[in-house]
Amino acid sequence: MATLTRVFVARLAGLPVFDPNGDQVGRVRDAVARLRADGPPSVVGLIAEMPLRRQIFLPIARITSIDADSVVLGSGTINLRRFQKGPAELNVLADLLDRRITTPNGTPATVVDVAMESDRAGQWNLGRVAVRDVTSRLSRRGQLHQFEWHELTGLVDPGALQGTASLLSVLEKMRPADLANALQDLPDQRKHAVAAALDDERLADVLEELPEHEQVDILARLDRERAADVLEEMDADDAADLLAELPPTERALLLDLMEPEESAPVRALMQYRPNTAGAIMTSEPVILTPDATVADALARIREKSLSPALAAQVFVCRAPIDTPTGRYLGVVHFQRLLREPPGDLLGGVLERDITPLSPSLPLADVTRRMATYNLVAIAVVDSADRLVGAVTVDDVLDHLLPRDWREQERAVDSGS
After folding, report:
1. 277 within a domain of the structure (yes/no)
2. SS3 of 219, please?
3. Which of 205, 223, 262, 281 is the most exposed place for a label (fewest CB within 10 A)?
4. pLDDT tens per residue across span 64-80
5. Which of 143, 165, 187 is the last residue of a domain?
6. CB-based contacts of 103: which residues, under 8 Å, 6+ apart?
7. DSSP character for 136?
């Protein structure tokens, strides 16, 4: 059936899946195996992630080729219903990686990968298991070994200890939105273990992509010092939205634990009425002074940390340029920057014809203004003409969609 007759599942994760015409239909995220009483689990298919983070099931019989670079499907239709694990089934990576098991000589080890192997009849089963010895020495990693499935104890024991290191190595290349989606598919205990193992910046990015009740649940499982550190890594508007979901006493405690320079913009955003420009804006757009050059502006918007919406324009203000800034002067869109000589000053290429928003402007009016002028972001200024932030198109979408839109998307994908 395939070019390879043995492939380790963690190496499949992320590989593109192509249809017979050579068009990519998704990427591999996991393999599904069904438990058997008389042998190792049989592999029944792969989980592929489609656009919009929908995970679907690809039956193993539909797969005509597996190699080091791709997975290829045979002809036929693809069932686009969202994958749901059935009884007596394993998601190989999610359920087995990092599981604590016992080797044939009685020593403890953890699972780092599992191979799926094709027999002479073309059936695929879980076969060899790569494990790492558990060692008590912090400065030394345990040795790697391979065993056959039947030689190990504890592989399918639901009470076995399960860490996170190997699963994290598979998930680390995912975009935050995709990782957030994958987290929601894990059992609660596993989900919180993985979330706790992420570094502060990565966890902050993932929290911004989760439904509010999941954000609150994960934050509540962290100790308060760690929770405050994660909030500091979040965008100020997302942190403000999350804190608004917490009880007032908990909210105040976490704000006090944050560094003052990190909590100040969050506190400022929380002062605005809900569903106004001030409440949904980001307080950290790209801001430069009029004597900065086009080259300076292009260098700023190339920063990897900026979202596409924030990188689409530079707001120009008198010093100081931390919000609230000096007097707001105008905006330069990145297309204009590309057309101007690098040495020209921003003060000479400003666009001043778009009236900025007031922080109190209702969301409906913000939406109409941005749609009228086809904007991806627009300035928000206070009564003294100081820039206090910018509303981006993704801010607007987040607040126009129903609060439970992520759960609705998952419900539609699952066919419920």
Report:
1. no
2. helix
3. 223
4. 989 888 999 988 777 77
5. 165
6. 109, 131, 133, 145, 147, 151, 152
7. S
